[in-house]
């Protein structure tokens, strides 16, 4: 078996994988299915290549933007070269090598004739593709397939492929585009990985050094700098989980190539094992199999994505952690490599253990000092009640203006949701697959998120460069049996205004299930309008306020900062400074009960205004608005309860068990009290930046409340 310069791509002979053994056990059906994961990917790959071999080679002149025919065909060809190499090694059948060579020959003819792509994207353009990012992606796949067949080619054929195609492409991606190659960004990661892997295959150390250290070999650019700067010490990627997923593949593939060729560099030990941490943190940033949709995220991307398939295989090779096998079971696929085979084998052998989903703080920034993504999970169930608080940095150009934004999930669904990106990825009919103009004009704006808005303008005025300078000041993060909580504040999102948010998962015997307490405050100089939007999922079924609905004519909520895309569909005054809204989603009820300032009213909204091309999803929102005030505090309890069964026609506990919420503010501390319809009271003390032994006491209408440390539940079972 050939020793590979890049990664452990070697697969066992296909003939040994066609008839999997039956495992004799009570779970033989499940484990047999697991063992078939590897067999399945090989058989599917072989069937796909065998079908293609019988057809004419299709290497079209580049014409289309992302998603168009030529764009997608060149992507298919790169994968075909890679897969043909794998199958040639697995079977020894010459037809696979010949197919790879036919494809490569066609590119040898085409590539030298190409100028820049006719539909250049706003980023650095490519030749085969509208942006060089795709070109780097193409080379990462192609060079792996080429490595496998290279030794079996005649010298003149090797020379032709390398001099006319592979070296020119590597030069174009490096010296030809320094602004991308030396950039600390996912585009730079793909470019450096492509060139560095090419260097190892061609035996050209100059390519490797450029890839690792930048074009001038000084270390001011290059893969190593990206590895050091783009991930936090916890493995969180600066641009968020969607782009972490995308960047993960070149990081792990080039990492394996470095390890295979220069183990003395200790690439997997670098920064305390940052590559493995990056893989694991990517897994943790999912709910029900889909990545948290913060920043420019396409919401249907999840852990079964190709990049994380490779990531899990690499992580398992590094650690042998059996919890990764349960991730493979969720993914339902493996990669056609030796790592994929080992994952499938061990999964079928029943070695899997549950992946430890848990509450955690993922710090942001290279030194972990640029905020954090805080995840609060009520249990280890990956589909359980979960809150995500975005206390991170801006996230560069893909960041959204929602400091301390909140997402809430339960039973596999978003309850309070984030819009993600306004984009139809690779659907050419929708602006050529680009980000839509509504991405900047709506999806990035603060009102598009569950984050506090001041004076109907976005955080940092919607200016990315300003947002990149600032991040929240994070408070204590605590995980406990009765309460898990986080807090943060920022005084740079708006001039002379400070925003704070404390989010706590609370468990108490008086409650049907854990609830989420969300305490949001804005305070500053002068008078301001404060808007707290809830982008909710599900059907509105009950409120404690009377809605004056706009049933005949509608008007947008504003003319800028995203408000222009929201229809005002109703309005309501609030009785006794209390707002209670109950939703029904997937046979479960969710009540949002808020203590709000006097004079606060509710706006009901729906996306779709000023959207003649129907680019935006029609989603509802509820906005708590406190007008013309120096400060505003919103204390909300998000409460799952009851059940609706449409099949058996019964309803249980459809009404909230909370009578009212009381919020008492002090100097750096707060008490939120849940007064239940049962007559019991659950009190929660919140002082987000205090020592673990610091004592607090506050007076409420029902008496003094005292606690120790940053957060504590003074529950119904502890007396008043």
UniProtKB/TrEMBL annotation:
It is found in: Periplasm. Residues 361-629 form the Heparinase II/III-like C-terminal domain. Residues 73-263 form the Alginate lyase domain. Its main location: periplasm. This is Alginate lyase. The keyword Lipoprotein does not apply. The keyword Signal applies. Keywords: Lyase, Periplasm, Signal. It comes from the Bacteria. Residues 1-19 form the signal peptide. The lineage of its organism: Bacteria, Pseudomonadati, Pseudomonadota, Alphaproteobacteria, Maricaulales. It holds the Pfam family Hepar_II_III_C.
């Amino acid at each position: 078996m050939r020793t590979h310069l890049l990664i452990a791509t070697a697969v066992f002979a296909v003939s040994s994988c066609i008839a999997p053994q039956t495992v004799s056990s009570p779970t033989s059906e499940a484990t047999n299915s697991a063992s078939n994961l590897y067999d399945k990917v090989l058989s599917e790959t072989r069937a796909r290549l065998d079908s293609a071999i019988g057809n004419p080679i299709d290497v079209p002149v580049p014409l289309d933007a992302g998603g168009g025919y030529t764009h997608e065909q060149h992507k298919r060809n790169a994968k075909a070269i890679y897969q043909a190499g794998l199958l040639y090694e697995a079977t020894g059948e010459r037809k696979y090598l010949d197919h790879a060579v036919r494809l490569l020959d066609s590119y040898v003819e085409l590539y030298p004739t190409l100028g820049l792509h006719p539909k250049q994207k706003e980023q650095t353009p490519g030749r085969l593709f509208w942006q060089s990012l795709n070109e780097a992606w193409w080379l990462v796949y192609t060079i792996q397939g080429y490595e496998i067949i290279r030794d079996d080619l005649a010298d003149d054929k090797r020379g032709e492929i390398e001099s006319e195609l592979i070296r020119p492409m590597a030069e174009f991606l490096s010296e030809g585009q320094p602004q991308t190659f030396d950039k600390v960004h996912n585009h730079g990661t793909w470019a450096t990985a492509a060139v560095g892997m090419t260097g190892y295959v061609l035996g050209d150390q100059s390519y490797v050094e450029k890839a690792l250290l930048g074009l001038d070999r000084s270390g001011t650019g290059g893969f190593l700098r990206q590895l050091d700067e783009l991930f936090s010490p916890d493995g969180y990627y600066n641009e968020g989980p969607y782009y972490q997923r995308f960047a993960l593949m070149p990081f792990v593939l080039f990492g394996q190539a470095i390890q295979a060729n220069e183990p003395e560099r200790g690439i997997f030990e670098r920064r305390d094992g940052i590559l493995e941490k990056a893989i694991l943190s990517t897994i943790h940033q999912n709910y029900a199999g889909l990545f948290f949709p913060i920043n420019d995220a396409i919401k249907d991307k999840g852990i079964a994505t190709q990049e994380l398939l490779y990531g899990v295989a690499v992580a398992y090779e590094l650690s042998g952690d059996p919890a990764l096998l349960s991730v493979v079971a969720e993914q339902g696929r493996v990669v056609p490599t030796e790592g994929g085979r080992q994952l499938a084998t061990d999964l079928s052998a029943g070695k899997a253990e549950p992946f430890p989903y848990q509450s955690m703080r993922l710090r942001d920034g290279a030194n972990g000092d640029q905020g954090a993504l805080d995840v609060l999970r009520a249990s280890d169930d990956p589909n359980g009640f979960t809150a995500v608080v975005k206390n991170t940095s801006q996230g560069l150009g893909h960041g959204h203006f929602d400091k301390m934004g909140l997402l809430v999930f339960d039973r596999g669904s978003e309850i309070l949701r984030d819009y993600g990106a306004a984009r139809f990825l690779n659907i050419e009919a929708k602006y050529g697959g680009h980000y839509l103009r509504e991405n900047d004009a709506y999806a990035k704006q603060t009102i598009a998120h569950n984050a506090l808005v001041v004076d109907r303008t976005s955080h940092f005025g919607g200016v990315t460069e300003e947002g990149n300078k600032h991040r929240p000041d994070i408070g204590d993060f605590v995980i406990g049996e009765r309460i898990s909580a986080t807090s943060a504040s920022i005084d740079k999102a708006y001039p002379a205004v400070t925003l704070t948010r404390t989010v706590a998962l609370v468990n108490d015997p008086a409650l049907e299930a854990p609830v989420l307490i969300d305490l949001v405050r804005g305070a500053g100089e002068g008078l301001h309008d404060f808007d707290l939007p809830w982008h909710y999922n599900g059907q509105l079924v009950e409120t404690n306020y009377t809605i004056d609905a706009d049933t005949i004519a509608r008007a947008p909520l504003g003319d800028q900062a995203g408000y222009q895309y929201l229809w005002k569909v109703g309005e309501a005054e609030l009785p006794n400074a209390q707002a209670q809204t109950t939703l029904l989603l997937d046979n479960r009820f969710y009540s949002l009960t808020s203590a709000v300032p006097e004079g606060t009213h509710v706006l009901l909204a729906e996306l779709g205004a000023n959207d003649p091309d129907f680019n935006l999803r029609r989603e509802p929102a509820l906005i708590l608005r406190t007008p013309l005030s120096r400060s505003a505090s919103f204390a909300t309890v998000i409460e799952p309860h009851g059940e609706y069964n449409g099949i058996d026609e019964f309803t249980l506990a459809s009404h909230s068990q909370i009578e009212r919420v009381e919020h008492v503010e002090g100097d750096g501390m707060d008490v939120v009290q849940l007064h239940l319809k049962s007559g019991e009271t659950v009190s929660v003390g919140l002082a987000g930046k205090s020592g673990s032994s610091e004592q607090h006491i506050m007076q409420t209408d029902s008496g003094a409340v005292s606690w120790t440390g940053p957060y504590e539940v003074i529950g119904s079972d502890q007396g008043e």
